[in-house]
Amino acid sequence: MKVERLHRKNNLGLAGWIRGGRYGLERYAYTLHRITGLGILLYFLLHIFATSSRIWGPEFWEKTMDLFEKPVFKFGEYLVFVAFAYHALNGIRLFITELGFGMGKPQRPVIPYKNAVRRQRPLLIVAMIIAFVLIVFGGLDFYLLGN
Amino acid sequence: MNENNSTKNTTTVIFEILRYNPETGEKPKMQEYNVQVYKGMTVLDGLNWIKENLDPSLVWRSSCRMGVCGSCGMFINGYPRLACNNQILKISNKKLQIKPLPNFDIIRDLVPDLEGFFQKHKSVKPYLIRKDIQEQNLPTGEYFQSPDELTNYIQFAYCIKCGLCLSACPTVATDERFTGPQALAQAWRYNSDSRDEGSDERIKAVHDEIGASRCHFAGACSDVCPKGVDPSFAIQLLKQDFFLKTLKLRKDEKETHVIPTAKKYVPNPKIPEAPKPTVKK
Ligand code: SF4
Ligand code: FES
How far is CA B272 from CA B263, B264, B265, in A? Predict the structure, then answer.
């Protein structure tokens, strides 16, 4: 007798970006890269909307500008800067690695295995240090030196 | 399980295993078993013990029990691993949660459906392609290859098609169609083989919108691979090669030559002759 078989879907979906195991740093860098990318895109859309609000007359423009002076938006703007700093620096690392550089050469697989992800990790760390410095200085500029 | 193991020092480890029966189609549920674990016991040994002593209905896939066949990939304590390649006590001495590999359909209990995975593997033409078919089919000799040329690809040739890398991949998690680390690594295994001439033929399968360019180098595949294949590295090399060749910054490889088989065999006088066979044919 033929039994109907019901395979069950088991795709991790979006949860797979975040959850799904204890992997190396790069996998989390991947998720953060996507989130910051989407965040910057969202900002970009908002930015176009804000600057184009002038077409609804000077009053509307003034109002939007006042709105964006609020601390929440200022913090939001800083977040965009943070996202940008991360995305740019990690992006440079990805440029280098996705073109196959900075990862050494194929080797005979001898236990304990070493992989290219480990070999390029210094790049990630340097990129993150620079991003961190940018974020700190950006914060100083936003809140202390600016205005 | 042999008897003398029970006399050894053992620890009780709880196995929490996902159960799914395709005939009822009910939602998968977790079931617990207590297993007496001795030092050196692998996860696969534990499953075998459960099947023999507690629950004969438990289903999984395994064969070689030594990390060669690639059939026992499972999601063990939140990490894709081979059941036969991991000792229980090295993972945990309290609880082991075992689920089928994510990103594959579940056929039953711990058995993932690898059909699509093998299809992806086939799609990249994972075999030696030569322009001179005549020579390939009726060889007059051997293709030359130096040890350095061998090192170029040998690590990628170690793949046992276990599917762990696809389970770890965040891109596969959201896009089932993505060719995936295993197949792309195999494409590079053949592209980088000095004897192969099929890179052009593979371009369509490898560099389409669900191919190598979907990889964003999360690197999880290389971390989980039990054979040191380093698939993420292979994919980046694949991209590099495509990029450099498109911009004409890298020349096409030289053709490998065929070494004709020696006509007359002259034995080396320094090597003693093999002893006479003791068993008659
Ligand atoms: S590349 Fe590694 S993890 Fe992926 S299928 Fe092959 S052996 Fe398994
Ligand atoms: S049983 Fe063959 S790899 Fe585990």
Answer: 22, 19, 15
